[in-house]
Amino acid sequence: MFSKLAARNVRRSFKDYSIYFITLVFGVCVFYTFNALEGQSVLRYLSQSQHYIVEGILMLMDVFSVFVSVILAAVILYANTFMMKRRKKELGTYFLLGLPTGKVSALLFLETLLIGILALVVGVVVGVFFSFGLSALSGSLFRVSVDFLKLSFSFKAMGKTVLYFGIMFLLVMIFNGVSVAKCKLIDLIQAERRNEDMKEQSVGKSVVMFLLGVALIVIAYAMLLIRGIFAIDALFLVMLGLGTVGTLLFFRSLSGFVLRVCRGNKGFYYKGLNMFTLRQFNSKIHTTYLSMTAICLMLLLAIGITACSVGLNNTINAMTDEPFDFQIVNYDADKNAVDMAAALKEKGFDTDGELSECLQYTYYYPDEATEEKTGASAVISLSEYNAIMEMMGRPAVTLEDTEPFRDEGALGDVVRIGYVVMRDEQVAALSVRRQVLVGNYAGDIEETEALLMNALENGAVSNDGTFYCHTKLSTYLDLLGSKVLVIFLGLYLGFIFLLASAAVLALQQLSQAADNAKRYAILARLGAEEKLRDRSVFVQVALAFFVPLVLAIVHAIVGMTSANAVIAEVGKLDAAASGAVTAAFLVVIYGAYFIATCLGCKRVARGK
User: Is the pLDDT higher at 78 or at 593?
Assistant: First the structure.
């Protein structure tokens, strides 16, 4: 009997459960996706040679999953509190019909179980496809072959998701049981809450508060842009405090500022239901400005973390932007000069066939006069320098006089020493210091590099530390783990903060709409058309959703500008990619909550 009643209640109240259900589905989807990272194309590629890095990334994601689960549990409990508030009259009816507290608790237990199972199934299914999309996105960002891209299912992630969300649902069931046990019948029957009294602020007070808030935000912006985002000290905390207080004052001033300004425009204020809409918005600011401040800051974190994690991809790529596929350095060339290309051929690596281009050049010790005058610790001949420039696709240089030419940019070898370029005849009189062999692969990078490593391991050059081999692929793989961690962790936290912000906003607006249900009924009896009531609902929800979002975007733009100023030393944020990905997440998650909230509030306003 209770199973049928629970199933019927879930079906009948599914519209009321929509926000709750969306929150659960998004939560399960995100949690499953980021706990199924071992199936991601980039991690499968990285595990071939850097399995220890993959293990570290997965371990760190496990740790952050605990933090994420706490946030999700808080959001789910908050959503459940709203649902319980909406159903107080229904629960009171069950008590009037003679159902004992234990039976009512059992009914709520079954309903929570049904919703939880449905949310887990839908969330995991969506998560599988979302994981595939994330795999394609990360694969394109990290230039991983499509051979590693496939649709997969992770039983480990499934088990972890069921365990964590099972605990969350258990907490919800316990909370519901305690709430029912504490309820009094009279409170359940008279469950409607009175709307808050209208409290208006003077225009002067609102204007001063608004201007002070804007001033504090501007000061915080100036400190951030001047000092930089990575200057972590006492003033950094002061900057955060100023920005937070300024944001709070901005929202607090809206309670009187917007209403009074709109009142000045009589044509707008008395048009349609604008007066009702603005007064409703104004009446709630007194209790919601704190939550709007918190939501704005959470949105700032969601936007900033997501955008920076994607945008930093180009910055890290710049760190691997080396001019040659490999470089072999002979540190002991003054005692043991070697023809390294010939040595590689002897050990089976055909430099003519495997390399598209190859060049060995020499560094020399400078004479005392040159070293004293230029501060350089090495010299390279003009002919070899121009040969390297040709390989790099750069223009050749000429020496108009006998003065050496100092190139501030390193040639790409792993030994970043200061050097000058001198005429060949001048260099001929100097002593050899080091030799460097550089080249680019003709065929597949990984296959060719494997052949090169095999020749080196077989003794093409000495392994006593006097020779050192460095490749572009090895640098890329070393940094790939950092890139993966940055983007996955950033997206993970960005998703969660965005989900929490949108869910809290949605539930807050639905709760306020329920409080105002009688007022909408009065408007209907007074002859207000349904489309005007719907428009009033839409405007109120839009103000609640987009005012904190717009301010959060402004905060994020300033923060990313400051971050890019620091990052510009080694690269720059990929603004196009980060903006596109962040916008997509906002449209999908924030947009879904906005639409669902509008529909839910309209149903309440229509008395359905």
Answer: 593
Whose tokens are 């088990």? That residue is 159
Angle, helices 517-525 vs 274-319, to 10°: value is 130
End-to-end CA distance of the chain: 27
Residue 444 has what DSSP assignment? Answer: -
Give the whole-angstrom CA distance, residue 187 versus residue 371: 90
Pull the structure tokens for residue 30: 């995100």
Average pLDDT rounded to a whole number, residues 264-285: 71
Q: How many Å apart are CA 55 and CA 478, to the nearest integer?
A: 14
Q: What's the rounded Cα separation, in Å, for the pair 567 and 479?
A: 16
**Residue 150's CB: how many other CB atoms inside 10 A?**
11
Tokens of 111: 């309903």
CA dist 429 and 452 (Å) reads 34
Interacting residues of 497 by C-beta distance below 8 A, sequence separation 6+? 298, 299, 301, 302, 305
Torsion of CA 587, 592, 596, 602, to 10 degrees: 10
| Three-state SS at 419 | strand
Is 177 within 8 Å of 105 (Cβ atoms)?
A: yes
Could you tell me which of 398, 364, 371 has the C-alpha nearest to residue 383? 398
Q: Which residues of 448-462 are buried (b: 16+ CB within 10 A; e: fewer)?
A: bbebbeebbeeebbe
Q: Which of 384, 257, 383, 389 shows the shortest CA–CA distance to 323? A: 389
| pLDDT at 456 (0 to 100) | 86
Report whether 411 contacts 422 (CB < 8 A).
Answer: no
Alpha-carbon distance of 282 to 241, in angstroms, equals 26
Phi, psi of 344 (to 5 degrees): -65, -40
- The DSSP-derived string for 519-565 is HHHHHHHTT--HHHHHHHHHHHHHHHHHHHHHHHHHHHHHHHHHHHH
Scanning 41-100, the segments in alpha helix (DSSP H) are: 41-46, 51-86, 88-96
Using CA atoms, how far apart are residues 520 and 604, in angstroms rounded to an integer? 9
Gap between the Cα atoms of 284 and 557, Å rounded: 29
The average pLDDT across 569-586 equals: 70
Q: Which residue has the higher pLDDT, 491 or 422?
A: 422
The span from the CA of 358 to the CA of 15, in Å, is 69
Number of Cβ within 10 Å of residue 608's Cβ equals 7
- Phi and psi at residue 469, to the nearest 5°: -110, 135
Closest CA to 73 of 180, 160, 163, 171: 171
Q: Which of 541, 487, 532 is nearest to 513 (CA)?
A: 541
Helix (H) or strand (E) holding 510: helix 472-515
Token pair for 367: 């004479």
Spatial separation of the C-alpha atoms in residues 382 and 436, rounded to whole Å: 15
CB atoms within 10 A of CB 582: 25
As a whole number of angstroms, the distance between CA 309 and CA 573 comes to 9
For 54, the token pair is 């993959």
Q: How many CB atoms lie within 10 A of CB 100?
A: 10
- pTM summary value: 0.70
- Count how many Cα atoms sit within 13 Å of the Cα of residue 207 in the half-sphere of its side chain: 5
